[in-house]
Design a protein that fits this description.
Two copies of one chain form a homodimer.
Chain A lengths: L7 H19 L5 E3 L6 H6 L31 H11 L6 E3 L4 H14 L16 E6 L3 H9 L3 E8 L2 E2 L1 H10 L3 E6 L13 H8 L9 E5 L17 H7 L6 E6 L11 E5 L1 H11 L8 H11 L2 H30 L5 E3 L8 E5 L4 H11 L1 E3 L16 E4 L6 H24 L1
Parallel strand pairs in A: 1-12, 3-4, 3-6, 6-7, 7-8
Antiparallel strand pairs in A: 2-9, 4-5, 8-9, 10-11, 11-13
Chain lengths: 425, 425
């Protein structure tokens, strides 16, 4: 029976039952963490053989004979550029291989644009009275943290299963020259798990910004992170942009953080050759080189992009049962009650759920008191403000399966308790 | 005989002889590079066993049981903080371990101060009509590149064998609130190889800046890079600053770039706990963590600071003969002529020489045409402008000994030729 169709007496009985379940659960004294999209120990163990790839007897030269141990090679070794170029379907000359953090590359890209300007722009972003960014919501909290840090005004754009609402994006981008960028996670979006449709990608690639220094921040964090055989496909935005002469409008980002080691992978910026030349010049003041030894380690470990793609099956083996468990438990425990919406993603790292309006914070609070830390309610919105107090990001990757099951039990109880309490007023 | 004491006829004969030597040398068709302070292949080979320290069977937890492979631990693992704390004579809580590049940490520190401000400062640097930095000259070209990038006005301060001219530093810093920082390489300075005297360090530690957000950028790049048994000693600036309540005024930097692998070492910021807390908060928007696997690799390789210090003898074995060769050849080939000044450093990476005024560019040009690339004349000065066109930075570390000998032969010939040409007018 749907919760909203219950009588007051039925609701009260439901509330009492949920409260009893909650108190029972709380008495177990659990302490579980589902707050971040971290790989589990089992996933980290997959990549341990990578540590054997380079040893004291290894040839430490890249394919061009460059000794990767020394200074230099600011944009990374060619071997690694080719690996990522194949993976992303672009030319190696469009790749800059960075350090261990794509977030850092994104932060730096915003910082450079803010202080010094982008290729083709008439001035640094900071020389405008104000700088604005479009933020498809819900989105990645750390994206919003970067733009907030620079005092950039963030404008919410609704997400749909096909990607951001492109009517809104097109209208705003083409009319307001102070809008300098948009945050996108185009494949298995964080947190909803949606992949932008071909039409959405084409519309992005054909944008006509009012600003001469507008950039799409295309964070392709989950480009090979499939969970199902019938996985999603993302159109190559650079191919589409080329048809409109718009290649300079895009900064794409990717990394091996959720492929090898999150703390010790390699990250890349992918951009037009104009952008790469411009960024390289600015970057030359920032550093002498990133860690080329780790680049070589990754290249030798995977061999090529096909090797890397095949490798992702090992992660899927660990992750898929966890995502299935979450989606199945939501359906089983809450489906009939009709008090929660969610999407069953075919890849990525999250299951995004929507409670009744005004219930998300209370659910997160109940879970925390019951022993399970979730991502904070509202975290997926600029300024941490979910206007509906409805969205919660579930991160099934880190806990082992048995702990995840317990955490989800508490979560479902908390949703029931918070919702019925709200309905009873 | 001193060149300046020669008659015109003697000078002309000297010039003809130098020109003949130069043309002879040029005909050899050499192609050598002495432009950067890069470790040689022999030095890189010293650290190859570090690649065996972590392998697929290793325990990947730090001393606190934290899995170094995953996200998190923004300021680095405690094991690595302790290693550097011991090395620099500070508390581990004063260390942030970063990525592979101390230059990047310095750039980031300037960038954060510029955009967001420093601990205790009333506003971001960029909110002033102008920002100025003191630059002891000659100095490190990449320091000056960072401040130039942010449009910071650079003011030359003369170097002496005891460090920067402290009368000038004190006068400027105490009177001009727009002076926000000073670049220092306090031990085996780049390029002169001078170590700041105890008195100089004490005067730095006792500065009374007019600005409430002034910072000393104390780039201790060569803190353990001794070449002689009777090596230099640098006073601990934090100990001295504590006596004046000035601990917050200092950002110290160090790295293993010239200890293990220049491209794949670890770098640190060392600062007061107030500064560390302030920087950490800003840093949390920039990245999730630096490469903790590489930190663990370094810690396990060295064991502790004493292990690291002892290790530096292996580098000295490679470097000391090169520095001796350079200094001996300068003395032997040019000493009697009295046309070049230099310091024989007891550590670091450079031999800094001073030609007669107006000759440095010509010497570098002659060397280049003869087949040896030197650091550009003027590179060690802000805006690449050496007011005397006199200083040249020699970098003996990279070429093997036999190549270095050839390069130095050409260099000495070029100094003779450029100087006599200048004298003849």
């Amino acid at each position: 029976m749907k919760l909203k169709e219950m009588s007051r007496a039925q609701l009260e009985a439901f509330r009492d039952e949920a409260l009893r379940e909650y108190e029972d659960f709380k008495s177990k004294g659990l302490s579980l963490d589902m707050s971040r999209g971290k790989p589990s120990k089992a996933q980290l163990d997959i990549s341990m053989p990578m540590l054997d790839v380079l040893n004291s007897t290894s040839d430490m030269k890249d394919k061009n004979g460059v000794d990767v141990r020394n200074y230099g090679g600011l944009t990374g070794i060619d071997d690694c550029k080719e690996l990522f170029a194949d993976l992303l379907g672009v030319k190696p000359s469009m790749i800059i291989v960075g350090g261990n953090s794509s977030l850092n590359l994104m932060y730096d890209s915003v910082a450079r644009a803010y202080n010094f300007g982008v290729y083709g722009g008439s001035k640094p972003w900071c020389k405008n009275e104000k700088v604005k960014f479009l933020c498809p919501v819900p989105g990645y909290d750390r994206h919003f943290g970067v733009t907030e840090t620079f005092g950039i005004e963030m404008i919410n754009v609704p997400m749909t299963p096909q990607g951001p609402d492109m009517d809104t994006v097109e209208r705003l981008v083409s009319s307001d020259p102070l809008i300098k960028g948009i945050w996108c996670v185009p494949m298995y979006s964080n947190p909803d798990g949606y992949t932008y449709s071909d039409d959405t990608v084409r519309r992005f690639a054909a944008l006509k910004p009012a600003a001469d220094d507008f950039r799409i921040f295309w964070d392709n964090a989950y480009c090979v992170h499939h969970l199902k055989d019938d996985h999603d496909h993302l159109l190559n935005i650079f191919d589409e942009a080329a048809k409109n002469g718009n290649e300079d409008m895009i900064y794409e980002f990717a990394s091996t953080s959720k492929i090898t080691f999150p703390g010790a992978g390699v990250a890349v910026i992918c951009a037009s050759e104009n952008n790469v030349a411009h960024i390289t010049k600015q970057l030359s003041m920032q550093s002498i080189s990133y860690d080329k030894v780790n680049m070589l380690r990754h290249v030798r470990y995977f061999g090529n992009a096909d090797g890397l793609k095949a490798y992702m099956h090992k992660h899927r083996e660990v992750l898929e049962p966890k995502f299935d468990l979450v989606v199945n438990m939501l359906e089983e425990k809450l489906g009939a009650l009709d008090i929660l919406r969610w999407n069953a993603p075919r890849g990525g790292y999250f299951v995004s759920v929507y409670t009744e309006k005004g219930c998300a914070k209370e659910v997160v609070r109940l879970c925390k008191e019951g022993g399970v830390v979730l991502t904070g309610a509202g975290a997926s919105y600029p300024y941490k403000k979910d206007p509906d107090d409805s969205n919660i990001r579930l991160s099934p990757s880190f806990p082992p399966l048995d702990e995840l099951k317990q955490a989800m039990e508490l979560f479902c109880i908390s949703v029931k308790l918070a919702t019925v309490t709200e309905l009873l007023g």
